[in-house]
Amino acid sequence: MNKTLRPAVIAGNWKMNKTPAETTALINEIKPLVVDAKCDVIVCVPFVDLSAALDATCGSNIKVGAQNCHFEKSGAYTGEISAPMLADMGVGYVIIGHSERRTYFGETDVTVNKRTLAALESGLKVILCVGEYLEQREQGITSELVAMQTKIALQGVSAENLKNVIIAYEPVWAIGTGKTATADQANEVCEAIRATVAELYGKTAADSVSVQYGGSMNAANADELLSKPDVDGGLIGGASLKATDFATIVTAASK
Question: Is there a catalytic annotation at residue 132?
Answer without folding.
Answer: no
